[in-house]
Amino acid sequence: MSQQLTGIGASAGIAIAKAFRLENPDLSVERQPITDVDAELSNFNAALETSKKELEVIRAKTKQDLGEEHAEIFSAHLLVLSDPELVDTIRNKVKDENVNAAFSLKEVAQQFITIFESMDNEYMKERAADIRDVSQRVLAHVLGKSIVSLAEINEEVVLLAEDLTPSDTAQLNKQFVKGFVTDIGGRTSHSAIMARSMEIPAVVGTKSITEQGENGVTVIVDGLEGTVILNPSEGELAFYRQKQADYEEQKKEWAKLVNEQTKTQDGHHVELAANIGTPNDLVGVKNNGAEGIGLYRTEFLYMDRTKLPTEEEQFDAYKKVVEEMNGKPVVIRTLDIGGDKELPYLDLPKEMNPFLGFRAIRLCLEKTDIFRTQLRALLRASAFGNLKIMFPMIATLQEYREAKAILEEERQSLVNAGTEVSNDIEIGIMVEIPSTAVMARQFAKEVDFFSIGTNDLIQYTMAADRMNEKVSYLYQPYNPAILTLVKMVIDASHAEGKWTGMCGEMAGDNIAIPLLLGLGLDEFSMSATSILPARSQLASLSKEAAKSLAEQALTMNTADEVKDLVESFLATTK
């Protein structure tokens, strides 16, 4: 008899194969006294070196298969294993307390994990997951236990696991691993993001797949709906095989739109752009027919290193992107880093609430040497394509004016030195803070464009950390309050003859797209794999009908009412 479980659809598609339940080795340890400290430390050091070598191999494979941005995860893991605060604390515990290395490692690692998890923000939670992943790898080697190598799977399976670590996901061979299902996790976890890049159907957060799923039973993974069926009937198999075939046909239809402009049913054009982290992401951008880059996150240039990137390193990265986009717009965000994203070579203050702290433009306006270096690299790269510069985390007009003044000083300095710089670089801001949305009319008189960062705008407006499960219900993209702020920004830009884009996850959401179209959004920027489905959806919509829909949505009382309204509207467009 079949069983159905419900979770979160983390990566689209349908997979049908037999179950392979990932069972990790027993890594339970007890505190034990030791007499030979040197031998214990030698075992720990050997386990550490073995783990580093394994991670180097995984990093190289990930870079080759998925690109630099995903490989950065394992660079972070290698940094963890080189962090003296962690590693030396473990060694000192062995020496000072004459206790076994396995126990010392597990106890110290758990202390670090608990600290990071208690900070309740996305970056710190990822750090906790990194430490857990890395420490388990080292612990397995200390104990002489073998780690299951997912790279060695050589038959078609659906992977069942409590959770998949980034190093697990990076080893998956999509020829054999047709899909995966986990007990825990969400759409923004490393494994979910990597699954979407690899186009492996995935459902996460089922709570009980490892309890209910037995090795060898047939499993259906519906990553479109977030549904998992164990031991399906013949009728269910037939239904999902047809759904799988229909989805593959749909993907072929989407592929035909790669070189098309994005136009609505009534001929209105909007721009569909991609969000990227490194120049290596350009392959996906081109393969999915992006009309530009709506967000280039430059912080990846600053991470996984022991010192700041030079002006030349930055110039090369920016130049490569603008050149390869062949005149299409490239919006590059200046450094968005700070208390929530630590750089080991910057002595940044520890903060109770780093998401509201010393970060992004606030950091750049104080550490102007770092800011000026980046601005010079950007200005020099502007001569090679259609580059636009965007400042993040702007809360006041004064911040924008200060940032623009520094930019103008560097522009003049380059021009005086005979360096070629574009004469028509658009300068814009991210709208992530409610005060900026409320003041949009004043900002619109001075900026060239807005880009709405909904991930932060929603959590700041609702006063709810989207990574905190206790308040995650308040992360409501369709809430009329959010839609009202979005409308204020778009209307303000249009009144001054300017344009507004959106680079948060909301821009690629099929419920949000009709609303954003109706509100007048000019540019939708999203992950590259979302572009073709969005282009297909927009082609089926009328701008005028979407405008009426948005007006009605603004009169609703709750996010659920808005969602129901849009779903009814979409049902009539099919």
Provide an overview of this structure.
It is a single chain. By secondary structure, the protein is α/β, with parallel strands linked by helices. 48% of the residues lie in helices and 13% in strands. The chain has 22 helices and 16 strands.
Task: Provide a brief overview of the structure.
The chain is α/β, with parallel strands linked by helices and 574 residues long.
Topology of this structure?
Blueprint: E1 3-6, E2 8-11, E3 14-21, H1 37-66, H2 68-81, H3 84-97, H4 101-117, H5 122-143, E4 157-161, H6 166-170, E5 177-182, H7 190-198, E6 202-204, H8 209-212, E7 218-222, E8 227-230, H9 234-255, E9 271-276, H10 282-287, E10 293-297, H11 311-324, E11 330-333, H12 360-366, H13 368-381, E12 387-391, H14 397-416, E13 427-431, H15 434-438, H16 440-444, E14 449-452, H17 454-462, H18 480-495, E15 499-502, H19 512-519, E16 523-526, H20 531-539, H21 543-553, H22 559-573
Parallel strand pairs: 3-4, 4-5, 5-6, 9-10, 9-16, 10-11, 11-12, 12-13, 13-14, 14-15, 15-16
Antiparallel strand pairs: 1-8, 2-6, 3-7, 7-8
Helix pairs in contact: 1-2, 1-5, 2-5, 3-4, 4-5, 11-13, 12-13, 13-14, 19-21
